[in-house]
Design brief:
Blueprint (H helix, E strand, L loop, with lengths): L4 E3 L8 E5 L2 H11 L4 E14 L3 E15 L6 E15 H5 L8 E4 L2 E5 H12 L47
Antiparallel strand pairs: 1-7, 2-3, 3-4, 4-5, 6-7
Length: 173
């Protein structure tokens, strides 16, 4: 992700707050990162940037609702986000990072930070491991690939794997 790098020296000692409520801004961040997300409600973020002697302190939140593909049926479903974060990036660690610039970098004699990178990192951290369209989603039919909960699957339960036939009548108390 390229993103715009801002000089830390432009931030006053008491810090500065940034607000993000633009759906197109979020969409461009998701697209650049290759995330399958859609806007489905008001998504907002705040980010406070506070320069420190040995680094930069970031504090903020991401709240709202998005839509993501369900891990069981692949239909988009709502995901509620409510994430608060605090993190500190040390100048020394950034100088010694072999993977290149992270959230901060030293460039042309001054320290810089990327709003987009901070927001993307924190956005990814707030996402669920396995989003579901609904808690009781039954997923896809293994035989025909139709969504089971929609009633469009007409596969016979008897036509399932014959090796499992012994378990069909099994009842556990």
């Amino acid at each position: 992700m390229q993103g715009k790098w801002l000089p830390i020296s432009d931030i006053p000692v008491q810090g500065r707050e940034f607000y993000f409520e633009d759906d197109q801004g979020w969409t461009s961040i998701w697209k650049e990162a290759g995330l399958e997300c859609r806007s489905s409600g008001q998504l907002s973020g705040t980010l406070g940037v506070f320069p420190q002697k040995h680094g930069v302190y970031f504090q903020g939140s991401i709240t709202g609702q998005i839509a993501m593909p369900c891990t069981r049926c692949l239909e988009y479903g709502p995901v509620e986000l409510d994430h608060r974060f605090d993190l500190f990036e040390e100048f020394e660690d950034a100088m010694n990072d072999p993977e290149g610039p992270g959230l901060i970098k030293f460039d042309n004699g001054q320290w810089m930070f990327s709003l987009e990178r901070v927001l993307l990192e924190q956005f990814i951290l707030t996402l669920p491991d396995k989003p579901l369209c609904q808690e009781d989603c039954s997923g896809l039919c293994p035989a025909c690939g139709e969504i089971i909960g929609h009633g469009s699957c007409r596969c016979s339960k008897q036509g399932a794997d014959p090796r499992m036939a012994v378990f069909r009548g099994l009842k556990i108390k």
